[in-house]
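can u do me a favor
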């Protein structure tokens, strides 16, 4: 298993998929170290250690390369979420970017509203995203939401729900600033530590649950997803609205 994992790491490395290759190198090295411990043949141990040393050196070089890309504002990671895939709850998607320095978040999404019954979960999705921020190890103090007004009679309900979320967040020491734009099209989430996440479908990439008592209704990690692409960037300066 260790050999196959490092082979995959080398393939990803050759394809310049450095973030993925680093994960495989690290997993492969751990597996090979276990093999060394269980091996009694000294010659084999020596060969394994040589290879492990080579892989560790390459993994360290990739780490430095990724860090330089972050510092230069050139980092880019892409995640493809397949149709009906599970395991992509907000915690899974965002946790590695919510470092302790995050205190301010910007959300641009034109569909944090309730146009009709089928799309009403977009407001719940935003609430779930806010819950994740409140629970995160960082100390978020301000969330900026830029969205569009709902249509017709749905606007009043949209405003009522967002005001309720705003009030609830204030109980946790978090300020929610809400702005509206009729021309907004982009969907992105930015953190003041420089990370930017763009999701093709915005926060609404989950499928409608089968019912209020079906698996995945409460736990988003178990909720099937709609196909979408997630692009992650790191920039030196996060623009503000």
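np, heres the sequence
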């Amino acid at each position: 298993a260790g050999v196959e994992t490092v082979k995959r790491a080398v393939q990803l490395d050759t394809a310049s998929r450095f973030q993925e290759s680093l994960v495989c190198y690290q997993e492969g090295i751990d597996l090979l170290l276990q093999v060394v411990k269980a091996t009694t043949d000294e010659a084999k141990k020596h060969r394994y250690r040589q290879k492990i040393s080579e892989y560790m050196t390459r993994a360290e070089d990739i780490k430095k390369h990724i860090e330089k890309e972050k510092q230069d504002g050139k980092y880019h990671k892409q995640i493809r979420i397949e149709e009906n895939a599970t395991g992509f709850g907000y915690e899974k998607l965002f946790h590695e970017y919510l470092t302790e320095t995050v205190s301010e978040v910007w959300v641009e999404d034109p569909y944090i509203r309730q146009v009709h019954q089928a799309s009403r979960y977009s407001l719940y999705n935003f609430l779930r995203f806010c819950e994740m921020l409140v629970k995160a190890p960082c100390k978020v103090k301000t969330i900026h939401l830029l969205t569009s007004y709902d249509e017709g009679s749905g606007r009043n309900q949209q405003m009522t729900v967002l005001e309720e979320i705003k009030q609830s967040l204030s109980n946790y020491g978090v300020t929610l600033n809400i702005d509206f734009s009729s021309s907004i099209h982009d969907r992105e989430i930015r953190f003041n530590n420089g990370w930017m996440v763009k999701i093709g479908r915005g926060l609404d990439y989950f499928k409608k649950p089968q019912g209020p008592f079906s698996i995945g209704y409460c736990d988003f990690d178990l909720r099937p997803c709609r196909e979408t692409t997630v692009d992650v960037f790191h920039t030196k300066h996060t623009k503000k609205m």
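Helices lie at 2-14, 18-38, 42-71, 90-94, 121-135, 154-170. hope that helps!!
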